[in-house]
Amino acid sequence: MLHKIGGKRWTGGVIINQQLVAIFPEVVRHVILSLEKGKQQQLEEVRLRQLRPIELIFTDGVFYIKQDQRILSQSPIDAMIATPEICQRFLNLVSQHSLYTLEEELQKGYITISGGHRVGITGKAILQDGKVTHLRDITHFNIRVAREVKGAGQHFIPYIYNKDGLQNIMIVAPPQCGKTTCIRDLARIVGNHHKVAIIDERSEIAGCLHGVPQFDVGLRTDVLDACPKAEGMMMMIRSMSPDLLIVDELGREEDGRAIQEAVYTGVRLIATLHGSRITDVTKRPILRSLIAERIFSYYIFLDRSKGPGTISTIYDNQLQKIEYVQTMVSQSC
Amino acid sequence: MLKLVGSFITVLTSTWLGFHLAMQVRQRPKQIRQLLTAFSLLRSEIQYGNRPLFEICKLISVREIDKIADIFRFSYEELQKNEGDTTYHCFHKAIRQVWGQTSLKGTEKEIFLDLCSVLGRSDRLDQIQHIDRAKEQLQVVEEKARLEQEQYEKMFRTMGVLGGVLVVILLY
């Protein structure tokens, strides 16, 4: 697979193995396996919406499965429909016939499956005291394929390492722009030299299966799987004495407080956040105090203008736009 | 001589039939109680163990005995395949294979299948409510089966022997 990322081309991508394809509905499984390897590796998402066409999203666009020929087409006309049976079978596969074991996941709206792949789900929300307690009538699925792109983090290295050593950086991007892929590779690069601790709340970064990372996250990297970020950061600092903490998708207020606690212990941090513009991001309550205290040395914004993981803009700790250094990759890493 | 042998076989067959029917009515409440124990285990594993259904079935198949264990072992094998079949379908396959070898009747089967149609498809609280309802229904059926046992077990045995003797007398 070739992506233009940060002005350079990446090679690598998702490995379509039996474990991953087994989760797909039968018709999707056949189509994906019949594709050439290069195209397989471009697969980003499979979306099932009950009684609507099954959608396959590749790096180069959205495709549908032609009903009669079972080949890919960019037109939704005559496309294969996600029947209630297909949706039900898929839900059984994902939940292992045991939705009650996924109560917490159903509250959050996604399930992480082995290999670090994430299945987003929606249906009818059941509320109790104004809070979502459960999802019923689950009819929409989004299977997000986790990808391992070695080299995806190289472009961030000049910002993580400088003359003062490791730096705190925040990677900001809308969904599907490669945030998790980038920090996974950063963990691998930095984790081959320094002690790195990943707090993998959604089991997406390391894709742990029974506690063992399924992705290469570095020789010296420790992973705390499925633990809330705020709690996990302090746990890792106390127990594993890391040089660098990595957390994905900050969102709750307590995450911000935990970051303040963590960085003042002397540990460095790489975090990601959903967002697309600096003006929007600075208004988010979670970031206000972190910006005021200049905790992060750099805010790196990603987009998909040249493929997932393209560095669009970089701001320093005073939110001044700085020039993107493309070529300065640390040889030590 | 031939008549004597024929009479002996008739009495033997009739006695066997009587004892078989008596065993059926004796076994039924016992197997319903085993099913109730299995449901209790299912309930506690869902409530406290948070184990997936296939693991619970495996656990029950180890703890229970005889045919009830077989139902859950077959269900475990079907669920374990994880081929996307519905939960109901997996249990139904297992029940179809084993039910004929048990002393259980259609009423218990209906209660079991009703529960299977909701198993694994909702949150924990809902699952527990369904299991409790199934247990209550089974308890009523078990009480009836126990009364039937008291009423018919001895009768079937006696009628088996006497019926055979009666046929022999009539034939002579």
Structure explained in plain terms:
The complex is a heterodimer of chains A (333) and B (172). Chain A has 333 residues and is an alpha/beta fold. Chain A has 2 domains: 2-144, no CATH class; 154-322, 3-Layer(aba) Sandwich (Rossmann fold). Helices cover 26% and strands 30% of the residues of chain A. Chain A has 11 helices and 19 strands. In chain A, the strands form 4 sheets. Chain A has an 8-stranded mixed sheet with strand order 14-13-15-16-12-17-18-19, with helices on both faces. Chain A has a 7-stranded antiparallel sheet with strand order 6-5-4-3-9-8-7. Chain A has a two-stranded antiparallel ribbon with strand order 1-2. In chain A, strand 7 and strand 8 (117-128) form a beta hairpin. Mean pLDDT of chain A is 84; it is low at 1-12 and 327-333. By secondary structure, chain B is mostly helical. Chain B has a domain at 31-150. Chain B is built from 6 helices and no strands. Chain B has helices at 2-49, 53-63, 66-81, 87-98, 106-116, 124-171. The model of chain B has no long low-confidence stretch (mean pLDDT 89). Chain A binds chain B through residues 22, 25-26, 88-90, 92-93, 95-101, 103, 106, 133-134, 136, and chain B through 46, 50-54, 79, 82, 84-87, 90, 119-124, 126-127.
